[in-house]
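Translate sequence into structure tokens.
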Amino acid sequence: MDSGDNPSTVRCKLCGEAFSLPEDDLDGNLPRMLLCAHIYCTSCLLSIHCDGVIRCPECEVESTLPEGGVFGLQEDSRIIGLIYTSKMNKMKRCERSKNRKTNKLSPTTDFKANHEDVEQPADVENIKKLVDEALAQAAENLALLDDINETLTNGLAEQVKRERARLEMEIKQAADKALHAVQKWKDVQLSQLTKLEARFSSSQAEVSSVQKRMKALEITMQMAREVRRVPFLEQYCTLDKVLESLQAPVDKQSYNMKDITLGSGMSCVFLSECLNQSLALSLKMEVGVPKQLSDSPPKGNQQSSSSRKSLWQSSKGKNKNCLSPKPDQESPGAHSSSSSRGSSPTPAPRRRSNRSRQSSTSDPGTPDVILEELLIEGKEKALPPTGPELANDNWRINRRRKNQSFGDKRNVTQWVVVSHVVNPSHFYVRYVAEKRESENLSKKINHFCCRDSCRFTSSDTVETGSLIFVKWKEGLWCRATVVEVFQTRCVDSVKTCSVNQLSGIRVFLLDSGVGKSLTIQSEEETTESSLEAVNDHLRKVGEGVKVELGYFAPQAIRCSLKDLVPYDLTKGWSKEAQLEFVSVVGSAAVEMRPLGQDRDTLLVDLRKAPMNQSSDVPISVREYLVFIEVARFYSPVSLGRRPLLYYPPKYPKINTELNAVVSHINNPSDFYIQLVDNMEFVLLSAKLKDCYNATTLAGEDDLNIYCPVIEQACVARYEDKLWYRAQVVGHPGGRKVEVQYVDFGNKKILSVSDLRKIKDEFFALPSRAIHCCLSDVIPLDGKTWSDACSNRFISLAHQKLVTIVATGKVPKSEPLPVKLYESGLNGPLDNIAELLVKDELASFREGLESTDAGNESAIWDPPLELGLSAEDLGAPDQNASGEQSEEFQPQLKLPDQLKDLKVRVSHVNSPGSFYVQFTQNDSQLKRMCELVKKECALMEPEEVVWKADMYCAAHINGVWERGQICSYVSSRDIAEVMRCDHGNKMELHVSNLRPLPSSLTGSLALECTLTDIRPAGGRSTWTATACDLISYYLTGASAVLTIKELTDERPVPVTLFCSNKMGQFISIADFLASEGLALRERKPRDAAIQKSKETDAQSPVSETQTDGPDGEKKQTPTAPSVPPSPSTASLVSTPKPASRTILSAEKVKTGSYLPPELPCLGHIQISVSAIGEDGLIYTRTQNAECQHEQLRERIQQSMKTLPKQKPYTWKSVQGCAVIGPDMLWYRGHLLEVLGGHVKVQYVDYGLVENIPVVHVYPMLLCDDVPQLCMPCQLHSINPVGGRWQRDAVALLKEVLLNRCVDMTVTELPTDPRRPLTVELFLDGLSLSRILCHHEHASMDRTGAAQKEPSVMSPALLLDDWDIDIKDLRGPEEPMLGPFIYPNLPEKGERFQVRVKHLWTPNELFLWPLEGSSDVEVDGETLDEALTRINANITALQRLTNFHHGAPCLAEYSDGKFYRASLIRFSSVEPVMVLVQHVDFGSDDTLPSSRLRQMPAELLRFPSQALKVKVAGFKAPRASRQEDVLPYSPGWSVKAAMDMIDMLHGNITASVLARDPVLTVLLYNEDDELVHLPLVSSGLAEFE
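Result follows.
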């Protein structure tokens, strides 16, 4: 087959040149296939490729070139086979023609020779040979053709299959989009039918006239009836006129009845045009001359009238255009439409029609909805924009895009003029193409303003959002919308104001984007003067004028430079940025390229003509502002510090019924509720919406957020256009953020422009949404909730009022387990969890069933509905087994420990009298009520003479309780009874009383009084305000109580602590004092001070006990322990000056301060005062904190002067007094004498310091007060290296110091001065886990705490049991040193290397081959040593020490162990360790089970992978590659792959620097730097 047989097959369709194969001297012109399957020659593809992309000339599908460029494209084997076959056939034909010529000559010669000689047999053999060769070649050709045929047949079938699938999918997608567009058009048109009454204005006028006549007639008839009933009323009305009105005839002809027979003139037209491969559908609403309804043609036969007009053009002036279905085909009505519609097929932008052209006929071929437009433009607007909020005017853009090809989907570039600039993210532009239309609009507005109908009258009002005319300058009026209205004698703005009282107004000019404030001032305070002042600046817009102006869309379009944020995010846009933006754009036309839309803003880039005449590249305004460093491109940021967070929500009390609303539901284990306990949130929400709606309407940008941070608190706009408090929780990508509304719980992805900074006033209240889960139920499959269950749960609870009961306490990071009940008028109804189980959508947890019966028996007394919290049930004081064996006590028995007792306040009379119940007695209280009910419920009423102080059984609220008679009124049979177990008093009828057995008499409530305070105002009794306040906050509240003095008298003096909204424990006495309702009680001097007074009255110095040499105690004069106060100075004699003598060192002995009072086992709240260098944590309880404040005041008051300084021997001194750096007195404990300094520990803080001797005194301060701080050690944790390192102590100080944290006491020491074994929790997170995560410690998996040595000698115990412990402990793991590294040549010397691992293109691991390869130690190489060790790997111990950089053996994926070093712990549960293979440079994350202790002999081999930095290049500043290295985003994956390819072969290196990082240069085989190709291809840049 020759090329001439089918020239179209072997010729390029683009250039017409024939394809050719490469020859010896020529490159050839091979056919190559694009991604769209179109084929072109190599020369054409080389000429049309641009930036690695080729757009097909035939279908315009873009093909991305592979790595080899055009030559990397797939060659078309079919055409190459045809060319090759044609070439071979041509060669064969040439050989045959030569053979024919030879054969023609041979017979003649032979014939002549026959006469002379016999015929030669050699010629016959030659012919046979040629025939055989031709047959063999034909067989080969036939086989080749069979192979080509099979390949083409299979390829054709696969190609047809693939294309059919692709086209089917595209056809379905296109049809779905078309259906969606039609449905949307339908919905919009149906919604507009609500305005249909406006089309029948004449009929409405007639109806109004008739109704007015009917109303007047009814009033007249009523008057006539009243006159007929009361004749003398005739004098109050004109009877003749009444009769005339009643008798006036009704002329039916005077009312226009024909209007009701007319239609609206509107019709829906459907046009379709089906071509060979395209379908054009048109749906259009037309407005024509109204016709009688009976004369309307059938719907399917309505023809478009030339006088008809689009509904939206008649109402809003919108002009819709269509795009041609093909690039070379115009719209159906392009030639028949009038010039006023501007339907010229040229792509130049067209002006909108003005009022003078409105009477022109419309073209029925320009439909309202064109499916091709919707597929390109996306979301279509039903109405034209009426204000600046719709900046992306689709109608405006569509009109410019009418005649663009359907396949061109790029945004259209427009020429605009910047009319007003607020900042680079908020400015307004006007299209240059609309200049003529803008002039027409200005003339029309000025014409309207000259009319008297546009002047304001005294009856007119101005309201926010209305359209008015504003005088811009003399003779020039502009249309504007009202933003704010100010009324005379009103400070704040109002929504509506009468013109007469208008004092100021702020408007937004629609056609320039400028906001303007006007002050209305009149010379005289009269109505005429006010109207004149208003009309001098403003004009009103009537309905008719508004309709005419509706044909003109706003000229100013709000824009924002895409992805541009202020350079300093904290300060926002600077004045410099605004000025630079204004200066660069100027007043000349600039090129605007739309890049997207964000709500009411068009995201664009502006390009200005170059300032340099030699360059024709336009200047990008975005890049210019970034270059001069007044702006930067958007990217999510992360702050070094944690952003300010909302207060956590206030969780409900355990086992308390509360009303709530379920605000958001994900599933039964993940939903949010809002408690309906107060109105503060309602007021906050209303205030927030008003504040931010006003800010948005005014266009203020001060609160804009440009780069949100994860966990940042903000205010976000929801779908209802209102603002709510939110928190940023994610960055989905682009200019989007994911937020969670903290008061509702739901999450939503929003644009950054929908966020605002939150003001401080909205931080006051905590988050309202409480994260909850249904307790006691799980999914049916035990893993995930089904959609049916979630939907059923939503139908039962979402946005409904429910009753909730919290069932336990959990950390704040976990959902709160609650029970939900449907709320009814008479209380809770069904349990929602049980409804889900009944519907077989969920199941109870193992061992749990319906809880109805349990609830009925559990709620046995309304005052005790609080029940027991999980924390109380688990308290160490409340041992279940102990209670069962313990004898029942009807009378309250106080615990031995009188501090930090957990109580519940049952009744409050005043701060001096209130009752508490101990939570540890809850079970006894319940049992008491059951016994009283058992004894008295069945007793019949008896005639009992009830007297005061008698015990009784009282039936209160359906429950039998113990009571005590307070007073009895015989006439009414009403007795006042005090509830013994609660404290409050009630009046009951005697029928509700029964005699109480003496075995049950007693009380479980303790009457208490607050100490250290007294009533304010000099009163002896508490005010009603103080009583009401403390009753409001304390009744039913849980608290911590400390009994100050235990006596038989009641009330008992106590201190009481309760938690506030922040979860902090505060003293109730301090709270009352801070509220001004109480005063601090004046305390008498302590005994020590009184004693010092008595001794000081006799002698100016007191005596101190000292030990003499013989051990006897003797009295030694020393400085007074406490100097006299000013109030008692007159009672103390003045000290006489001492004689000058040289004093020898005085022997002094002081004891230690009392040990701290240890808390009980269990959970308490403490504050951390100090961290020791040995890792001990010094803490104080809440009670100790209160005592500490009092102790400080007491010490400072007692030590007003310095004691006399003497030389002392500090050997026997333990407790002492210290003057701190702040010149205040502190209690201390002497640890060590260091020359002129002593090491002292502050006993109330735990801090250790070296203090000069002159600041330490051997005396005890307030020795009756025990040490306030307790040393604590962490439970079940081992510090790295056996002792706490400095960085670990620094971390402890950072997270603990001066913080109030939760602590669980796990073990008490035998010596109260020794450390407690505890567990600390920070916001629910264990401190031990934090330390393990930071690799400062490891968990002791045995669960045993590090205990102090027992008092009894372990050796004695072992001797008694005769236990041999010699070989119980395994060998300790040796601490190995670091790996050694090979010696490298001097700087500048070349040496061969082998690259082991590449981290980034300029950071890699290599190994020098010269002088260091195959190093032998004891005649063995590293590979041989590893092979030997792997053969007996089971003999090696597992790794136990995990310090950073420790050598070890790590198992690789091939099952063998290699040398490695530890980097860090990558996870705690499960434990995973990140290691680095030192001989390869690669990292691996392994469990500890795949790590072994490394034999020390392997350290003698140098590591075979050195980490180096390759000098000379770096990552590009702007990469065009989409795929980047996740651990180093500056480098692209392509750059790394190309660098790997370039590092194959012989690579040499030279050292540039050794410190701080080993830096080298790498060369390839041609002695060129290996990174040069990366720089030339744009994947890197020179350093």
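Note: The mean pLDDT is 75.
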